[in-house]
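Entry type: protein chain
Record version: 2
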Amino acid sequence: MLTRPADLPDLEVMEALRTGWALEPVDVEYLPVGFGSHHWRAVDDAGGRWFVSVDDLAVQRRSADDSPNDAYERLRAALLTGSAVHDSGAAFVVAPVRTTDGDVVQRIGDQYAAALYPFVEGRHHEFGDTLTQAQHDQVLRLIGALHTSSAAIWGVAQVEDFMLPQRDELAHALGGLGKPWDTGPYGQRARSWFAVRANRIEHMVGEHDRLAEEARQRPDRMVLTHGEPHPGNLIETTDGWMLVDWDTALVAPPERDLWLLRGAESSTFDAYTGVACRDVLATMLDLYRLTWELGDIASLAARFHRAHGDTADARFEWATMEHRSL
């Protein structure tokens, strides 16, 4: 996230490192990177460097019926799964460091949960970066290796339920287009954006539901997926590619990972199928493209249909929204 949480000072992050991992931090620095979690870089008293990820559990709720504890359990299950894959010998996994009591997360009050990672040296990429064909194939083989991992090591991984996060927020926003959105600096502009696209969005939701029902009929296709293997979550190191941010790990159709690596050529998945020996279904690629796009749109509805300020995150989201083709 670009905007640090106002109610989470550095001192509380440092205390979480002491309590959870018996680390004695001498310096922490907030990093305005990524989207979804908050990040800090930490240096301990021995000179070791660490990467700290903190999730706002209230923000990670998927619906009005969801709770911060539900979000916490999802996060913990995903990170335990990533840790299990790493421990099975998957060197490409940047796994969370275990706490002193063997867990992978440390609660900070009721609202936040922290995870700690080693600081990985290498070439970092951005979300929208374009990979070369050779890089693309290397990543596909990595994903193929993940998808062929034994179910015995999946551990506590949760299973895809094909739910659209914040669907209720999206429906609430679309139902409120007849009234002004006096919710903040971007409210009225966001209302106009949604009004022009309301029919298209409703069509997309219907198409998502149809494809999700198709996916439910094929539980035999489920594999362990990372969820977001885009360039922003990849690091090139001298030992090969590393995959970070395992907080979305889930048992799901393979296309949950593959749609983000979709190329223009019909042979784009050859490197994957050569490892995984699985078919790639175009309909399921469409399902996860829609899931991602509608998730973004629902998040924007939640942001701007409710009270908001002129923060760096709000400005970034509005700029993304304003230039989104739909």
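Comment: The mean pLDDT is 92.
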